[in-house]
């Protein structure tokens, strides 16, 4: 729980604050940029929320992996808890309740008639578990790589979901492992795409040729204004990661939904392909 006595001095005066336990994962200022901002090695409240921003700020508080955000204004907290999973487009939602075990990585919920899907694991917070149960539970939990598994065991215990991961990360306890580097169809609308590089077993999930869930393989960098990846936080092979990024040019998608970094949506798959080509050209120069 965030503590007033340990608040960062650069918070704007008012009920919301960020304390010194912040790990600067970016969740709060990605979710609620009107209230929170990056202050270098931590996040801070750069502007106190008004009535129109209070719910979103409260949702960011609940999504924080380290409980580093506090508020004296509890008016919106119950509503904020009910707001997760947070709709993005169509059946795809952001789970919120990020986990410190995954350094605040974002997880996603796909509400589909053929069985609900979780992409990577959020924190097994009781309000989220209850809401997902109301939405029909989880049939499949796809894990992008070994860093973002968080509370996978708790979701399996609660919903009996099949946990799927690439075998190359050598992470124990899954129900199904994918081998090799070829895409594998999990269902007519779900394609598991091995994308080794960030880790040996990194993988993406493509839903309905529209939504690409990328883990830590690819994200939008708002400062550069382009799709990006990081050589600095590459744990396996940068050359393999670049090759895996090139492989994605063969697929149609309009959304990039990462575990870390900002998401990106375009109007057409062709526009997204051009963005990926532009990002690749930059990354190959690093």
Question: Can I get a quick summary?
Answer:
The chain has seven helices and 19 strands. It has 286 residues and is of the alpha+beta class.
Task: Give a verbal description of the structure.
With 286 residues, this protein is α+β, with helices and mostly antiparallel strands. The protein has 2 domains: 1-49, no CATH class; 84-283, Metallo-beta-lactamase, Chain A, CATH 3.60.15. It has 7 helices and 19 strands. The protein has helices at 27-31, 54-63, 77-82, 126-134, 152-159, 238-247, 269-283; strands at residues 16-18, 36-38, 43-45, 69-71, 86-89, 92-94, 108-110, 117-119, 140-142, 162-166, 176-178, 184-187, 190-194, 203-207, 211-215, 219-221, 226-228, 255-258, 264-265. The strands form 5 sheets. A 7-stranded mixed β-sheet has the order 5-6-7-8-9-10-11, covered by helices on one side. Strands 12-13-14-15-18-19 form a 6-stranded mixed β-sheet, with no helix packed on it. Strands 1-4 form a two-stranded antiparallel ribbon. The protein is globular.
